[in-house]
Design brief:
With 515 residues, this protein is α/β, with parallel strands linked by helices. It folds into 4 domains: 9-81, Ubiquitin-like (UB roll) (Roll); 89-236, Nucleotidyltransferase, domain 5 (2-Layer Sandwich); 238-282 and 391-507, Nucleotidyltransferase, domain 5; 298-382, no CATH class. The chain has 15 helices and 22 strands. The chain has a 6-stranded mixed beta sheet, sandwiched between helices. It has a 6-stranded mixed beta sheet with strand order 21-20-11-12-13-22, sandwiched between helices. Strands 1-3-4-2 form a 4-stranded mixed beta sheet.
């Protein structure tokens, strides 16, 4: 019988018709699937009905069925010979604003076949979603943005399939997780009202969509499940992240933070979820300084400073010569500059401790992190006073988002059983450094758990288990969104957090400055 009674591929063996049992082919198959799936409804498209009689007889009524569920409704998307050894594949998509990640799976057993990623080509139009929404308003703008992502997706799907000796036609299901704007542009929906009061998306729950209608070149019968969003600023990528972290099933209260273009946060447990988002992302991604880069080969991801000698210990990804710094490296740098006394609590350079590393460039003070003789660029890699000021504003925003969210439910940080940190940022960040600058609360280090690309992880789970789609709806329906833009408490707390680690050092007892 069925090899995976929770998956999307079901093996069905039908009793052939006789004069005594003259049930129609489609009804015979639908009845078997209703029993297998424990449902009262299975829909079969006309295109599949046209080929069903011949294939049932060719395969001696033994077949594999690719099914998909949308709440109480099941779809039969296609059928294959039960003896066929060809791979029935699914594709999980993390539809990021700056980067798109693909994961190819075998739908029959959940095995991950391969992964790939590519830069979102919409970046050539605009780097942020706000500018893309404005671009979508011009004549032909929405069509252009949609074509950019769909064409690149098709191109990269083909490459990924070839790496596994498969064809795009072997893909029967997609699972797509992205923020609200990215999902709209992916579907070709007008995002105009997402950023205009009262901030209404075109759709919150796209559900199941035919890939042909999206112009995605995979199996003609394939469907795409697009993760639901919870309003304009809490997208399907975060719903996927909640699913992947398991926070939604925990009795005790936990928190999930995903830092990208924005810092998006969800707090809760199996009974309730409350979420918010704020502009704390760009600086924490390494975007505040001229040497800031996304994580990649030759990018500084970790830094330590020996307080007595003030010697810098620098680590780069793949141990290549330094060419820039990513968010985790920047946070490490700020933390160790503070702990070694090279900057004070306002984030200002202390000349007597910085020595000859401190240089003035066009009236602005810069600290040389990597001298030109050691950098891959042939130039000094520096951080300026303005860079540090921007980083402090971003870390203050991050901490204040967390504090405001906790306060909104009458809880404190010590009540948290787990603190999940998602994304590349979460994989690379050193929690002790983030605590040292007052970006994250001073909790035991084992409270912090990096969950990697939780958006992709959640999208993968939706391809593996049919039960996940029901859970995704339950997650979305439980989310309460906290709007920070009109929250006066947020602004008051923000001012107090613009110091390292905070104006109230008793909140960070583990942070000890050298000397």
């Amino acid at each position: 019988m069925n090899r995976n009674n929770k998956g999307w591929v079901r093996t069905v063996c039908l009793t052939p018709p006789t004069l005594q049992d003259n049930t129609a082919d489609a009804d015979r198959l639908a009845d078997a699937l209703k029993s297998e799936l424990k449902t009262n409804r299975v829909d079969i498209d006309l295109d599949l009905l046209k080929k069903l009689p011949e294939q049932l007889r060719k395969w001696a009524y033994q077949l594999q069925c690719v099914v998909l569920k949308d709440r109480d409704r099941w779809f039969l998307t296609d059928i294959t010979d039960s003896q066929d050894s060809c791979t029935i594949a699914g594709l999980a998509v993390d539809l990021g604003t700056s980067r798109v990640v693909l994961r190819l799976l075998n739908l029959s057993n959940g095995q991950i076949l391969n992964e790939s990623s590519f830069h979102n080509p919409q970046v050539t139009i605009a780097s942020d979603v706000l500018a893309r929404i404005h671009y979508a308003d011009i004549d032909g703008g929405l069509k252009r943005l949609n074509e950019l992502i769909i064409n690149s997706l098709n191109e990269n799907i083909t490459k990924l399939c070839r790496s596994c000796k498969l064809e795009p036609a072997d893909i029967y299901m997609l699972s797509v997780a992205g923020n609200t704007t990215m999902s709209h542009l992916f579907m070709g929906l007008n995002p105009h009202w997402i950023i205009r009061e009262p901030y209404i998306p075109a759709v919150n729950r796209p559900g199941i969509v035919k890939t042909e209608d999206l112009n995605i070149l995979v199996n003609p019968s394939a469907r795409a499940f697009i993760f639901p969003n919870s309003g304009s600023y809490f997208g399907g990528d975060l719903v996927a992240g909640i699913l992947f972290s398991g926070l939604n099933n925990e009795e005790k209260t936990s928190i999930l933070v995903d830092v990208g273009t924005n810092a998006e946060v969800v707090l809760g447990n199996s009974d309730w979820l409350i979420a918010c988002a704020g502009a704390a992302g760009p600086a924490l991604e390494g975007g505040v300084t001229r040497m800031g880069m996304m994580a990649g080969p030759g990018v500084i991801d970790r830094i330590a400073i020996e307080p007595a000698s003030l010697q810098f210990q620098i680590h780069t990804i793949e141990d290549l010569a330094p060419q820039g710094i990513c968010g985790s490296g920047l946070i490490d740098l700020a933390a160790h500059l503070y702990l070694s006394g090279m900057i004070e609590m306002r984030g200002k350079f202390v000349p007597s401790r910085c020595g000859n590393r401190l240089k003035e460039q066009k009236g602005v003070m810069h600290l040389v992190v990597v001298p030109a003789s050691e950098s891959a660029t042939g130039s000094d890699l520096t951080i300026s006073q303005a860079d540090l000021d921007s980083l402090i504003r971003s870390k203050a925003a991050m901490y204040t988002i967390l504090e405001t969210l906790m306060h909104s439910v009458g809880s404190s940080f010590i009540d948290l059983s787990a603190f999940y940190v998602a994304g590349t940022f979460g994989s690379l960040i050193q929690p002790e450094s983030a605590i040292s600058i007052g970006m994250l609360p001073d909790l035991p280090l084992n409270t912090y758990r990096a969950v990697g690309n939780s958006s992709l992880g959640g999208a993968t789970m939706a391809l593996i288990s049919s039960e996940c789609l029901d859970e995704i709806d339950r997650i979305r329906d439980r989310i309460t969104y906290l709007e920070l833009n009109v929250n006066q408490e947020f602004m008051n707390r923000f001012s107090a957090a613009k110091f390292i680690p905070h104006t109230d050092p008793s909140r960070f007892p583990s942070v000890k400055v050298w000397g």
